[in-house]
């Protein structure tokens, strides 16, 4: 009889432990290599260059730069994301929660080569722009989270501390034209992204 009660007691303890809040598994950290869980502050992921390239934007000389240096490039923007983001987008047509877009800002120069009189190439890193897709409305207290994304610009000197203060004034103006160029059936938050410039996202 004592053995029976002992077994029953152990079973009750096991059930109690399993149902205890102390045993409940904590929700995984949201993009731990990019987002500070406590503050929502972003940082440039150290391994982003190991991710697939979404696409590259070339910025030509204009205005005073064009007058001084002539036709050519002054900046490249190379955009990276996780491989799972590409797979999800191609399947569903939208960016998943936790998708990270890293836009690497590179200084560029133009020179004459055998392949052409004005050939541009990247030189040094100027900084980064990081976006994180947020479908749950996290960090509402932060001025860098909203409209479905977390937004931050970083100078080359410090990939861990953003220079952005408020995404509505520091970031949205550059992304507003994207909304007019986005496909009509894209989710509203995804319309902030210039997805048409990333052929890898298109279904084959």
From TrEMBL:
CDD domains: cyt_c_I. InterPro entries: Cytochrome_P460, Cytochrome_P460_sp. Residues 45-180 form the Cytochrome P460 domain. It comes from Nitrospira tepida. This is Cytochrome_P460 domain-containing protein. Residues 1-24 form the signal peptide. The keyword Signal applies. The keyword Transferase does not apply. Keywords: Signal.
